[in-house]
Model the fold of this input.
Amino acid sequence: MVKCPRCGADVSPEKTWQVISPLPDAYGRITITVLGSFKCPSCGYSWRGRVSAIKVGPEGEVTFGEGKKTRRKDEASREKREGKVIEVDISDILEEE
Ligand SMILES: [Zn+2]
Done:
């Protein structure tokens, strides 16, 4: 949930999408940023913003947000080794938060 910048109500994203950084960081991790479009049901204000960020490491470890949670994701690991685009189920991510 994200708070409305205008009235502070809790708002769920209407739509989400991912932006994958093409360059790995110093640890070889690729950052996947999840963006969303929001519309506040309380005041009607609409905006776009970051929902969460995920870092996927070279061994397939997945870090959410600021590194609070880490879990192994074998699928992502396998796909990365093959040089393919990593796909993460958005609904799965949202449920975890
Ligand atoms: Zn609002």
